[in-house]
Design a protein that fits this description.
alpha+beta; 2 domains; 5-stranded mixed sheet; two-stranded antiparallel ribbon; 7 strands
């Protein structure tokens, strides 16, 4: 009987330590990860000072594409740097975000609300205005369009593409 009590006590202590460790692990992850940003739906982990590519100073700058260089308006003049990334937020509304990642020369359009197609159209129009490009020239660029599971679980994680660009 005394032996069973000792074994039972050891089991209780081991379970308690396991639960304590699990709670500690969950709490430590919460304290080092920021809540999801409105555009990417993923936590942004602070990385400290990220080396940034110098911003262009002229009215336009050139992006390299597979079809050759494309000159765009210098959106760096009116954009906000992205925390923990070498990039900028070109536009943020309650319905969408437009981001640019400098090293990859990649644009990301995140649709944040419904009706998805209407908001996507608004974001595409804004992208055209921000870049000062025709639809044909925008199609030469690396542009990803996506949405979150909270907006449309069937389309989350999929490349939605720009409505005016040919599907690859």
């Amino acid at each position: 009987m005394k032996r069973q009590l000792v074994i039972f006590s050891i089991i209780i202590v081991v379970c308690g330590l396991f639960l304590y460790g699990l709670i500690w692990l969950i709490q430590s992850q919460k304290s080092t990860t920021l809540p999801p940003g409105p555009g990417d739906g993923l936590p942004i982990t602070p990385l400290g000072d990220v080396p940034r590519t110098p911003a262009p100073t002229g009215d336009t700058f050139t992006l390299q594409t597979l079809q050759g260089p494309v000159a765009v308006k210098n959106f760096f003049k009116t954009s906000q740097p992205l925390l923990g990334y070498d990039g900028v937020m070109l536009k943020e509304t309650a319905n969408y975000q437009i981001l640019y990642y400098t090293k990859e020369q990649n644009l990301l359009v995140s649709i944040m609300n419904q009706p998805l197609q209407d908001i996507k159209q608004q974001a595409e129009n804004e992208l055209s205005d921000l870049l000062g490009l025709s639809e044909a020239d925008i199609c030469k660029l690396r542009v990803s369009v996506g949405t979150l599971a909270s907006v449309d679980p069937n389309l989350a994680g999929q490349e939605l593409g720009l409505s005016f660009c040919p599907k690859l």
